[in-house]
Design brief:
Blueprint lengths: L3 E4 L3 H12 L4 E4 L3 H10 L16 E3 L2 H5 L4 E4 L3 H12 L8 E3 L12 H8 L5 E5 L4 H5 L4 E6 L3 H11 L4 E6 L2 H24 L3 H21 L4 H4 L2 H12 L4 H10 L4 H7 L5 H16 L4 H11 L4 H12 L11
Parallel strand pairs: 1-2, 1-4, 2-3, 4-5, 5-6, 7-8
Antiparallel strand pairs: 6-7
Helix pairs in contact: 4-5, 8-9, 8-11, 8-12, 8-14, 8-15, 9-11, 14-15, 15-16
Length: 336
């Protein structure tokens, strides 16, 4: 089994590290906080992000980046998008040549508007880049509920080895060469999930929420195709599957942000109270820049951006969304 180093001790990074360790791969989880690393080693828990869940005893924790990365055959990046580049630059100093780098991050870099695999190619040229994405809620996977995921990378040999590392009876891993589509879908669904959460907070009902999710899928598909993704990807696990899980689950951070916005709380207040990152808030800025660049109409994402960054309200956003939907005509290829 290949040796795995996972950078980032949040809920999803810890869960993916636990999957690899329980599959027999020697796995090290790097966390910036030495206390968290000691919890993993001494008590096999991560109380800060996954309180009440027991981790595989084979999983090791460390706060020493060189120790985590130096002997790894696979580097897994589980840090938020805005810290992704700096964390990767530090990890690259200790990484051996040609080691594949797999991103768990569903976001886009502000400023550059780059996807995470593009950052990997910039920071660590020559290292195969991949992404793990799909409808994956960390706590459900840790308790043993069945789940599916997708590994996207253009190299079929690398894809197969990564699939073998994480695939289990109740965690089925598929492969997809459409890296662009998988990454764009993973980033944009967080923005739509904020809109879906607003529906919950406003008490608008399931009809409205279903409309938002459906038209949200159409929006992310349009932009994803314009950026080079394949249409089929957006109706699969990385697209529709991930979107549904993120928009519906009480565990979804982005849905929670939207719900709280719908209840009248300010975005700053909500973010300050959270101990994990909701990628959709910052991603909404980048999405609107990309929509302008590619000439794609994204009314739902526009409303989310206005609420998160321009002082609008969830109530105003839903009035705007309903007004734009009434009397509209769906393009035939986006009528789900």
């Amino acid at each position: 089994m290949i040796r795995v180093a996972v950078i980032g001790g949040g809920s999803w990074g810890t869960t993916v590290a636990n999957l690899a360790a329980s599959n027999g791969a020697p796995t090290v989880l790097w966390a910036r906080d030495p206390d968290l690393a000691r919890q993993v080693n001494d008590h096999h828990v991560n109380e800060r992000y996954l309180s009440g869940f027991e981790l595989d005893p084979a999983l090791r924790g460390t706060s020493d980046l060189a120790e985590a990365v130096g002997e790894a055959d696979l580097l897994v990046m589980g840090v938020p998008s805005q810290g992704f580049r700096s964390a990767l630059e530090e990890a690259a100093k200790h990484c051996r040549a040609w080691v594949p780098v797999m991103s768990l991050t569903k976001g886009l870099e502000q400023g550059s508007r780059l996807r995470m695999t593009q950052i990997i190619n910039e920071v660590m040229p020559g290292h195969p880049a991949a992404v793990l994405t799909g409808p994956n809620l960390a706590k459900e996977i840790l308790v043993g509920d069945a789940a599916t995921s997708v590994i996207a990378t253009p190299d079929p040999v690398v894809a197969q080895r990564l699939q073998e590392t994480f695939h289990q009876r109740l965690f089925r891993v598929y492969v997809n060469p459409d890296v662009v589509g998988c990454e764009v879908a993973g980033a944009l669904k967080n923005v739509i999930a904020i809109a879906a959460g607003m529906a919950d907070g406003l008490g608008t009902g399931d009809n409205t929420k279903a409309a938002v999710i459906t038209r949200g899928l159409a929006e992310l598909s349009r932009l994803g195709e314009a950026m080079g993704g394949q249409f089929a990807t957006f109706s699969g696990l990385a697209g529709m599957g991930d979107l549904l899980a993120t928009c519906m689950s009480p565990q979804s951070r982005n849905r929670y942000v939207g719900e709280q916005l719908g209840r009248g709380r300010s975005i700053d207040e909500i973010i300050d109270d959270m101990n994990m990152v909701a990628e959709g808030v910052k991603t909404s800025k980048v999405v609107m820049e990309l929509a302008a660049e590619f000439g794609v109409d994204m009314p739902i994402a526009s409303e989310v951006h206005a609420v998160c960054h321009e002082g609008s309200t969830a109530e105003a956003a839903y009035r705007g969304l309903i007004r734009k939907q009434i009397g509209g005509v769906e393009h035939h290829s986006l009528a789900y």
